[in-house]
Amino acid sequence: MSKQRITPRDIQASQESKWVRRLLIGFALTFVFLFLVLPIAAVLTEALRKGWDTYFTSLADPDAWSAIRLTLVITAIVVPMNLFFGVAAAWAIAKHDFKGKAFLITLIDLPFSVSPVVAGLVYVLVFGANGWFGGWLLAHDIKIIFAVPGMVLATIFVTLPFIARELIPLMQAQGTDEEQAAVVLGATGWQIFSRVTLPNIKWGLIYGVILCNARSLGEFGAVAVVSGHIRGQTNTMPLQVEILYNEYQSVAAFALASLLALLAILTLIIKTFVEWRQRVAEESIERGLP
């Protein structure tokens, strides 16, 4: 096979692409600094403007602590539920053929195209006092809207696609050869999942959980509609930040916002680590290493 001859035009194109690459990198770094790093730095600066004592006092406020606790509780409920649904939906879509498969994929993608505020209004229409099931719920003393259950449902809706959408293409790329081999060897369904499927998708699964967790912590629109903004009861951290800022308690608002920012940074660090581990695992598989 003859070697490909490099022409002066190829060399010129390579040199031009290097400058284009540097320009794009510079533009990206400038954009990230102006619209991500600088706002986060401003939030931290404003939160500490009156010192550490005021900062911790703001976070120790009963309403702020209630918002922190409620945010963590909702996240602790939402993430496992989406984890179960995401794995089940991805398994069904990637490993099986059935009628309505395309429709199921469309439904999973629906929260990406629907405004969170609209999603919250839909739950009010269904479960509100004047909603479809409002009369029955009132008769049985069950409260969903303006209570924690409605906030959990709204958060589940907006975070529904993250885990499933992360696993579906991964499972489709892996195919079903290993599962079929396990069936031939007499493995049960649980053994196939725990010893074959789960190890192959674990890093994608962790990545999806991280994204779902991040969205659960910071969700505002859908939760704001169904929460009722009851102090100490139905305010999450984003809602409490809005209330404090509207009441001109800027230091307290920025203190709580800084905690959200720190959680976001921690999520980003974990996400970066997971991506690195996934890349190392893929390179090891390509080289045939265990």
TrEMBL record:
Locations listed in the record: Cell inner membrane
Organism superkingdom: Bacteria
Membrane-related topology note: Multi-pass membrane protein
Keyword Cell membrane recorded: yes
Entries under InterPro entries matching the protein: CysW_permease, MetI-like, MetI-like_sf, Sulph_transpt2
Keywords for the protein's UniProt record, in alphabetical order: Cell inner membrane, Cell membrane, Membrane, Sulfate transport, Transmembrane, Transmembrane helix, Transport
Span of domain ABC transmembrane type-1: 68-275
SUPFAM superfamilies, per the entry: MetI-like
A Pfam family per the record: BPD_transp_1
Gene3D superfamilies from the UniProt entry: MetI-like
Oligomeric and partner information: The complex is composed of two ATP-binding proteins (CysA), two transmembrane proteins (CysT and CysW) and a solute-binding protein (CysP).
Role this protein plays: Part of the ABC transporter complex CysAWTP (TC 3.A.1.6.1) involved in sulfate/thiosulfate import. Probably responsible for the translocation of the substrate across the membrane.
Official protein name in the record: Sulfate transport system permease protein CysW
Organism, as annotated: Sheuella amnicola
